[in-house]
Design a protein that fits this description.
Blueprint lengths: L4 H60 L5 H33 L20 H5 L11
Amino acid sequence: MRVRVRTLLIAVALVALVLGAAVGFYAERRRSYYRLRVESLAWGEADVVDRIAECLQAAREAQERGPAGLKEAESARAEAEWLAKLASWHVKLERSYMRAVERPWESLPPDPAPPRPPPGLDPKALSQGLRLPVPVDR
């Protein structure tokens, strides 16, 4: 059986089309996953920013009560500082995933750990009402 060059070229072109479609499909799946992560992080960041405003307002109100509210004001400020670090963490992750949306063929570095809350604050109480992203395996 004789194989002509034209037949080989057509076969190579068909294989390239199939492989290109598979790679494109895989890249689009990764893009859509990363877009969802970006959206989730943006919502979480908005929640954190709202919570920071609430904490600062609570600190102001506690401080206005005089010496009796100093400890409460200090606690609210500590929570606001931790939340500011958490918002910064959200922004870093969001940037990382935005880059991944634009370049799905590149691998992502591991997600950094979220900031630890200060020793005097209860982590469960702090995260109540916040949409914290769930760590996922890639």
